[in-house]
Structure formats: structure tokens, C-alpha cells
Amino acid sequence: MTGDRVLSQRELNRALLARQFLLQRSSRSLVETLERVGGLQTQYAPSGYIGLWSRLRNFERDALTTALERRQVIQGTLLRSTIHMVSARDYPLFLAAVKQARQEWWRRLRKEFGAIDMQAAVAAFREHLSQGPRRATELKELLASRGYPALAWNGMALWVDMVRVPPSGTWDQRRADLYALADTWVGATPATEAAGLEHVVRRYLGGFGPATVREIADWAGIPHARLAPVLARISLRRFRDEEGRELLDLPRAPLPDAETPAPVRFLPTWDATLLVHARRTQILPERYRPLVFNVKTPHSKPTFLVDGVVAGSWRYEAGRVKLEPFEPLPRRVRAEVDEEARRLAAFHAD
Fold it and tell me: Which of 2, 3, 15, 247 is 20 to 30 A from 324 (CA-CA)?
């Protein structure tokens, strides 16, 4: 272990950017690009579109909507119990990895949930959804009419495998409130928890590595001890960070030189590269974290990167992308940011 290569913070930053296609936009298909980055968090539906625009060459908004309609991309509550867009191939594996842990977490968090007859509630729910997609309001009314408290709805997604289906949860209809049964919409492709956990490890390291075991677990929203048997059977590279922590990685995954130039990139709200699991890369400097995640901005702020680091926030308003740099930008850098902002404004306007 003492001979493990030490990776600098900047090397880890460039590895993250490369794997997230933020150094160079992807020429792969939309679905394969989405898989490579580990899916995209989409509590705010446009985040998936903007996230792909920043990562994929020649991306057009209709391409993602079409992929959702064709069921090539699935939107559901998955990693960290948050809404994600993932490929149809990834969906059952991610679900198998997180389902049991989510249920255990919910029972610990809401003790009163144990008093609800979930078997009967699930049966009623599935019967109703078997007739086709239903709006959230209709599903809540169904539970209320059967005498279930509001708490039953809050936990139902952890016991009934549901997905959010178009036209809801898209650029044009942003509220993701239309639900379908996963086995009807995606197809009956069950996966074991063991297969799902291995997939989580591979997707995380492929999109965010090298990383610690705890970071993989935090990204998925599962106890890190659950990964121990999985890691024992996967062939992995091992490194150390500057603080001596062991980092795991996939063989042959990209590790760009620390001095690789990083272009200006715009990120949407809740982009997973900024969450605490990727803190080792300092893509979001700690002094800026309260400016992006705080009680006044519960959905986080969309941000832009300069040299691989968050340098400010942005918003689309009156046909323009308006910038809020956190510190003054040099003239040359500001020109590059303004040019990318114009391209993003055009993407909004199309």
C-alpha cells in the first residue's frame, strides 16, 4: 500500500472533468454518454438537458425528450433517493442496488411508517397503475380514499417501483408528476442486489473516480459497508490522495495530466459533480459552497466552471444567460465565459 501512486488534487480534478466529458464533449450516443457519467440528477427537469448540452457534441433538446418517449432513457427515484435520468439498461441495476437500503433508511427515519399495512397499500397502488400512467394527485387521492395517511404516499415510491414518464419531467412540461409501473414501462428485467452494487461501483468510478469507498456509497445513498464484498471481487487500481486516503479506480480509466487545459463549462442545478462525494476534486471550492447550496437556494444554483473550478453562477432571463461571477474574472477569461453563455442562451431559445 505504501507504494501506491499519490494523485494531486488537480490530477483528481482533471480525471473528474475528463470522465464527465467536461474537458472534451462526448462524440458518443446520448444514451452511452448518459451511462458514462452515471446518469444525471433531475429534480429540476431542465437539468438533464443542460447537463447533456455541456457534455455532448451537437446536442439538441428534442433528442432527450425523444429518448424519454422511446423509453431509452428512464426517469425515476434512484440514487440518494433523488430523481435521476439514466439509461434503460442502467435503471434496473441501479434500482436493485439501492432499493433495500432506501427501505431500511425510511423505516428508521419514520417510525410511524411501520403501522401502515404496506402490503395492502402496494396492492391497491399497483392495481391502479396497471391500467396506465397516473398523475400524482390521482394516486394520492386513491390512498386517501382507502384511509391511508399522507405518509403512505411519501414512502410508496420505496415499495412500488415507479418511473416518471413523458410528457411530464421534460423541458416543455417540467413537473415530473406522471407515474407508471417500472415493470410495464421499462420491462421486466430484474437484477440482484449484488449485480446492482457492482454496477454502482463501476458506474461511479467510470464517471467520478478515482474515489474512496465512502464516496461511492454516498453517491448511491447506501451504507458503505454494503460495498465490501463487491469490491473484493472487482479488479481495481489503487492510489492515494494527498492526505493518504486510499482511492479506488477502474483499470485503464482516464487520468489526464494535471496541466491539461479545461474549457469554460456551464452546469445545471444539482449537478452531481458539485456534491460532497466529489469534494476531493475541489471542483467547487469550499469558500463558494455556501453560495451554491444554502437555505435561500434549496435547489442549488446553476454554475459555470473556469479552469475546472466553479467561478460563479448563472441564470437564463429575458433571452440571455446572466452571469454572477463570485470574484472578478480576467478579461480573457470573461470573453470565453461570455461566448459560452451566448451558446447556452441560443440553446434555451431554440
Answer: 15
